[in-house]
Specification:
The complex is a heterodimer of chains A (72) and B (280).
Chain A lengths: L10 H11 L8 H30 L13
Chain B lengths: L1 H8 L10 H17 L3 H24 L1 H6 L15 H13 L16 E3 L19 H11 L2 H11 L24 H14 L5 H4 L8 E3 L2 H30 L1 H14 L5 H9 L1
Antiparallel strand pairs in B: 1-2
Classes of the chains: A mainly alpha (72), B mainly alpha (280).
């Protein structure tokens, strides 16, 4: 499951950094706000997915493996 | 190297930059964000906060364009309500002053206004300990029909020498015709009083009861307009009931007879009946 998981940074982390650095005192327009809301949905979805996978991993009994994935 | 530093320090006088204080507050906000923004959940919260702020800025521009243009309030420095910038505090203040009483009952600086409740302008009949002496007399009159409490009659007898036995018995429920009468003059004012006391005006500021049936509002254009319009209507309705106080001061018996007649028969009493009531 871990090996198959895609590698990416959660989009919320990138967007939050971007918004905090950006000068938005002039105001974001409707399209920007809509885009941010869409990104939020994706980000929340990914968080839920990770939590679901984590819960499954916790439930799975440990098994000896012949192949150790890189990074472990 | 020296040249590069000098170049960096040179000032572009035409550039429109934020004042130093504002940039400083932005930097502090950013540092606070960097110190806690360790994971995706935190990042989502940050975005939600920014989006929610931006939506309120849009409402600020939409409903108070002049004030927005002239505002010098900071976008970053915290205001009296500490969860919000000075600019949003200004927006809340304007809503409170010009649209509806947003702050009524909410003085705590830690208050969150993401979802907000409103305080009813009407009487809380279920929990408030009602002292008839402290009520407007029009409300006490209305309560005669709703509560049928002997104490209210005692209040009228002691203060206005009005005795229950001098008037027809008040029916348990109003005459059907009451709701079909043309809403003009006295009929309109009296009917409004019945509806206000019964909390059935259809107006959120008058029908909400503070101890239950809380209605929670979000910052949407529809809600802002609804609350502002309803507030205007509610204050107008309450002002109208003040006219009943004036009429009652002039001729208490006639007003009570009007109300009972409307309630029981769905019409105002005949002139002769009214005159007889006044003479008693």
């Amino acid at each position: 499951m871990l090996c198959e998981a895609g590698e990416q940074v959660n989009p919320a982390i990138i967007l939050a950094e971007e918004l905090m650095r950006k000068d938005i005192t002039g105001g974001m327009d409707y399209a920007d706000i809509e885009q941010a809301e869409k990104t939020l949905l994706l980000a929340r979805d990914e968080i839920e997915k990770v939590e679901r996978h984590f819960a499954q991993i916790v439930k799975t009994p440990p098994q000896p493996g012949g192949l150790i994935p890189a990074g472990f | 190297m020296t040249l590069a530093v000098e170049k960096k320090r040179s000032i572009d006088w035409n550039a429109r930059r934020m004042p130093f204080g504002e940039r400083l507050h932005q930097a502090i906000e950013y540092l606070a964000f960097k110190s806690v923004n360790a994971n995706a959940s935190r990042a989502c919260e940050t975005i939600e906060k920014i989006v929610s702020e931006q939506k309120k800025f849009q409402f600020f521009r939409q409903f108070f364009p002049e004030e927005w243009k002239n505002s010098k309030a900071s976008f970053f420095k915290r205001g009296y309500y500490q969860n919000y910038s000075e600019r949003l505090n200004e927006f809340f203040q304007l809503v409170n002053e010009k649209m509806f009483p947003l702050f009524a009952g909410w003085d705590d600086p830690d208050m969150e206004f993401e979802h907000f409740y409103i305080f009813s302008l009407n009487l809380d009949l279920c929990c408030e300990d009602i002292e008839y002496e402290n009520l407007r007399v029009s409300f006490a009159l209305g309560l005669l029909f709703l509560f049928r409490d002997e104490e209210i009659w005692e209040f009228f007898e002691n203060n206005y020498q009005i005795k229950r036995q001098d008037f027809p018995e008040i029916d348990e429920s109003p005459h059907e015709n009451l709701w079909h009468l043309k809403e003009t003059g006295k009929v309109e004012i009296y009917r409004n009083l019945f509806e206000i006391v019964d909390h059935s005006t259809g107006n959120v500021w008058l029908d909400t009861v503070n101890c239950r049936d809380y209605t929670c509002f979000e910052w949407t254009e529809d809600n802002i307009i609804l609350l502002a319009e309803n507030y205007r209507e509610a204050t107008a309705l309450l002002d109208q009931t003040a006219k009943i106080d004036e009429l009652f001061a002039e001729s208490p018996r006639a007003v009570l007879l009007d109300l009972i007649s409307l309630w029981n028969a769905g019409e105002l009493p005949e002139k002769t009946e009214r005159l007889a009531a006044i003479r008693q």
